Amino acid sequence: MYGEFDLTIPKTLQEAVKSLTAGGKRAVPLAGGTNVLVDVRSQRLAPERIVDLGRIGGLRGITVDGGRVTLGPRTTVSDLLASEEIAATAPALVESARVFAGQMVRNTATVAGNIACGSPAADLVPPLLALDAEVTLTGTTGSRTLALCDFYTGYKSDQRAPGELITAIGWPVPAKGSFGSFYKLARRKGDAITVVGVAVGLGLKGGRCVGVRIALGSVAPTPMRARKAEGLLEGEAPVPERIARAALAAAQECSPIDDVRATGEYRRKMVEVLVARLVNNAVQTG
Amino acid sequence: MTAHDTIQPNLRFSQVGKSLTRTDAPGKAMGRTPYAGDYVMPGMLHAKVLRADIASARLKRLDVSKARALPGVVCVLTAADMPDRTIATDIPGQTGRDRLKTEQQILIKERVRYFGEPLALIAAESADIAEKARRLIEFELEPIPGVYSPEEALAPGAPVVQGTDNVVSTHKIRKGDTDAGFAEADMIVENTYVTPFQEHAFLEPEAGLAWVDENEVITIRVCTQVIEHFRAVADAIGVPHNKVRIMGAMVGGGFGGKEDVTVETYLAILAQKTRRPVRLEFTREDSFVGHGNRHSMTLKYRTGVKRDGKITALDVQILADAGAYVYLSPYVLLYSAVNAPGPYRVENLNVHARAVATNNMFTSAFRGFGGLQAAAGYEQQMDEVANAISMDRLEFRRRNYLQTGDPISTGFVPPSAIWTEKCADLAWEALGDPTPSEGPVKIGRGIGAFQQSYGRLTFLHDTSEAWVGIEMDGTVTVRSGVTDIGAGQASSLAQIAAEILGVTLPNVTVYNSDSQVTPLAGTTTATRALYMTGNAARLAAEAVRERLAEVAAEKFGVDVAQIGMEFNRVFVTDDSAKGMTIADLVKLAASRGVHRSELAIFRAPFTDVLDPETGQGQAHPDYAYGAHAIEVAVDTETGEVKVLKSVAAHDVGQCINRAAVEGQIHGGVQNGLGYALTEEMLYKEGRLMTPSFSEYLMPTAMDMPPVESIILESRSGLGPFGSKGIGEPSMTPVPPAVANAIADAIGVRVFEMPITPERIWRALEAARG
Predict the structure, then answer these.
(1) Is residue B405 located within the same domain as residue B471?
(2) How far is residue A74 from each of residues A52, A101, A106, B394, measured CA to CA in Å?
(3) ipTM (interface predicted TM)
(4) Collapsing DSSP states into helix, strand and coil, what is residue B685?
(5) Cβ–Cβ contact A206 with B under 8 A
(6) CB-based burial, B628-655: b 16+ in 10 Å, e otherwise
(7) Same domain, B395 and B467
């Protein structure tokens, strides 16, 4: 039922990249497999080659060094939940990890896999966007690092060249006193695809908002930053009218569609509700 | 028959009523219990089903040549290979009564009527080859206009799904004078409630293994609620009834979804054709379109009421979506009609219920069987009427509850206790102190009371058999065809036999679910297994006990009435020093040639059908009553619902195994919460848009509230020891209780289930203007 494909199990990153590059468009990297296997079974994906990354050492782990957090690409969602460093430096990421799918998926799904799957509903991406995360891509000719907010180019498409893999995810440790949170609105509490996901990050300096980041999931072809909303709050005092304007701006700048889970109209309205709610929470906490 | 609040007040039990470890528990816990999909045979083939991907179409071309040419493919069958083969889609002919003439072609010859209807069967040396062959079959379907809702199907000039028109079934109930009743009313309250389709979503998809045995018997090991489909399968493939044998396995969930034939016919045909063992397992996607789902219904309630809370008249119009084939729709609809007023006294009643064919997936049995949809109607309406006359919701109900001895809608007086009021008051009280509302999150509470039959429709003339025998070491064997769908059906028989024969539960072994070897027990449906087969086992065990007791009485020189049997001993009740082990008693009896086994049959009440114009008469043997109370928190900005508290109060008559009763209640709550809140089968021109568990969302452990069970035992039921049943009743009151709690929290009602966050948001937006 899983079709026919070559399976390669490289021991090094270079071998993996080579195998993927040689395999061309129908070569697929396999990390946690929680998307790939489902897609192969349903024939949404018909790979000719699967490159299993599971035997390559050093791809999993969390390091905090020199004011920067770095995740190995095969760090699992459960790893995030078990990490004191992540709890201390990225509370929004913890909140999204906690509501990510179900326990069995969390145990095997990886951070890079969630980014690379390109789903608009990828729950780890909005909090990572709010943290100004960067991704490092490695291909046959070397590595390059780009901002996560520049990674996606459209629905399920991104900047990776054929054969390139995400090999690190990193972000600067947020300044003391900054706030981050994530909310997942879904049709049930456990194991559900997100209807609207909102991540907010901000700090308060002299009664004004600084470093405002608002990121949205499931309301556009890719997870997105709500830059107009951020701009309306940056450097401003977080008075209720200002927050309401920013929330409305976020609702206006996303482009949600109708699907089996909800209508675009409802999603847009919920962006407004949740952005206002999370920003208000941040302000009250700060 | 007169009604009783209790018939056996002073029973004392040693085995029954306790939370004993069920006979099926260790095997399941240790992974030793084989399910139908676990069975394999040497040389077996693997089967696949090719399905239509358009709901209403004409088959223009079907070319299986490439599939047949694929190495490893043994057999590819289409309608061309068996042009006249049909299968009855109606209730199994267990009783020999005429069934409705509803037949379905096994494979599509020309006309496709629903999305997923089978086009071809493939058997190959491996599942992979079979799947590859399935993809090699070429077919062309020409879409033809279809109808996708009952309203569309009833419109003048609408395409006809099959036969002469789209009305599949109509039921009427007429009682008293509704015109006079409405004229007398101080207020008339009218509302329309919509209930959705629902998928059974059992853990175990349909699976089976078939082979032709040395006696030319086509033998099918399958997960089913009804092994007596062997007759329908034999008729379908053109062999005598005694040449098909269905052996059940422990079933991984039924809920009505394994009540109709699923994989059996395909397996029988392929085994017959290839003369090799054939295995077929539905994928989850197959399963979604491989058995009938719950009927979506529109229920229009019009209630006349006096200011003092007396209901003066009730008019109920029900429209059900039967889907593309009849299956059990007429019976499901009958349950909706009979239960339309719920557990309330309504002297002036008019019910008009219709089931209508569409090109949606066919609908059939599902836990609650039409009674559940009716409950969603009457219980939401009770709240709306109470609100309209500004009366407390429980007080309004109290003024209208049926009491023991009252007739129901059909004029029939249930012979057992009606303890709805007691149950509702206890459940409501158990909610305790209200949780405070906070900001946009509002708290609300709801009650759902109900009436749900147990036992099949009495005009089906239902019977059930069981055999009980006792061995010379005092161990007991029970044989009965009853299928065990996970609720402890087999274990209950063991507990009943243990109680009567005075042995402890581990000393009883049950053999069940074999249509040729175990005595036929009927279906595990309609909350009937305990009532029917439990009584058969009781009768058999009592006959054996009586013979053994006579031997003991003679041995001890006392009257038979003085003989007690308990905990593997027989003794004289007022002189317990006089006694011996049951094993010694059986040896003694055996040495005297006493018959140590008995095959018993239990017969439900046999009646005629209800009067076709008035719906008066007896529809069921008896009814179960109870209530469910719910507390929810609703986020009024997002529409999200969190169920905080859930209390079930049921009069089960008598628990056989208390833990099993609680298990059924927990499962019923999960099933009911899903129906009310999250589960949604979306169709687009008949195509199922939610065909997997990523779109079809049942409540998970994260979504479940704590469930409290209040179990009352009136000992008034028709089952063994006065038991009733809990399989369906555990679910029936849950959806309206949730809906009423949400309406209480937010001040407006969402008239259509599932009550999704978006629907709540829309209702609130509309109310905000």
Answers:
(1) no
(2) 12, 17, 12, 57
(3) 0.96
(4) coil
(5) no
(6) bbbbbbbbbbbbbbebbbbbbbbbbbbb
(7) no
Rounded Cα distance between A116 and A33, Å, is: 12
pLDDT-based confidence at residue B88 (cuts at 50, 70, 90): confident
What are the pLDDT digits (tens) for B545-578? 999 999 999 999 999 999 999 999 999 999 989 9
In a domain, B641, yes or no: yes
* Domain boundary residue, one of B281, B307, B334: B281
- Residues B362 and B753: their CA atoms lie apart, in Å, by 20
What's the structural domain count of chain B? Answer: 3
Which residues, numbered 55 to 84 in chain A, qualify as contacts with chain B under a Cβ-Cβ cut-off of 8 Å? none
Question: Are B678 and A187 within 8 A, CB to CB?
Answer: yes
User: B135-145, pLDDT tens digit by residue?
Assistant: 999 999 999 99
- pLDDT at B90 (0 to 100): 63
Residue B425: phi, psi to the nearest 5? -65, -40
| Separation between Cα atoms, residue B751 and residue B736, nearest integer Å | 11
**Best to test chain A binding among B282, B702, B756, B765 (most A CBs inside 10 Å):** B702
Q: How many CA atoms lie within 13 A of A73 on its CB side?
A: 25
| End residue of a domain, out of B249, B281, B313 | B281
Contact residues on chain B for A190, CB-CB shorter than 8 A: 700-703
Q: What is the pLDDT of residue B101?
A: 54
| Ramachandran angles phi, psi of B272, nearest 5° | -60, -45
Question: Residue B521: which domain range?
Answer: 463-603
**Most distant CA atoms of chain B, gap in Å:** 86
**Cβ-Cβ contacts under 8 Å for B690 (sequence gap 6 or more):** A260, B680, B681, B682, B696
Report pLDDT digits (tens) over A81-109.
999 999 999 999 999 999 999 999 999 99
* pLDDT over threshold 90, residue B655: yes
Query: CATH code at B375?
Result: 3.30.365.10
B156 lies in some domain? no
d(CA B261, CA B572): 51
Residue A105, phi then psi, degrees to nearest 5: -70, -40
B413: its two tokens: 């007086």
CATH architecture of A6-52: 2-Layer Sandwich (3.30)
* B61 and B141 Cβ atoms separated by less than 8 Å: no
Name the residue of chain A whose CA is nearest to B684's CA. Answer: A260
CB contact under 8 A, A190 and B700: yes
Q: What is the pLDDT of residues B341-366, one digit of tens each?
A: 999 999 999 999 999 999 999 999 99
The DSSP result for A103-130, as a single string, is HHHHHH-BHHHHHHT--TT-TTHHHHHH
Say if B166 falls within a structural domain: no
At residue B94, does pLDDT exceed 60? no
In a shared domain, residues B635 and B573: no
| Pair (B527, B662) in one structural domain | no
**Which numeric CATH code is attached to A62-172?**
3.30.465.10
Spatial contact of B654 and B648, defined as CB atoms under 8 Å apart: no
Contact A266/B at CB under 8 A: yes
Q: Which two tokens stand for residue B725?
A: 């049943």
- In angstroms, what CA-CA distances link A273 with A188, A242, B608, B721, B761? 18, 14, 60, 57, 12
Q: What is the mean pLDDT of residues B174-195?
A: 98
The model's pTM is: 0.97
Pick among B134, B640, B680 to test the A interface (most A CBs inside 10 A): B640
- Structural domain contains residue B732: yes
- Looking at CA atoms only, how far is residue B456 from chain A in angstroms? 35
Binary contact (A102, B700; C-beta < 8 A): yes
Q: Which two tokens stand for residue B366?
A: 């599902």
Query: Taking the domain A179-285, which CATH number applies?
Result: 3.30.390.50
User: How far, in Å, are A19, A151, B432, B766 from residue A25 at the CA level?
Assistant: 12, 19, 61, 50
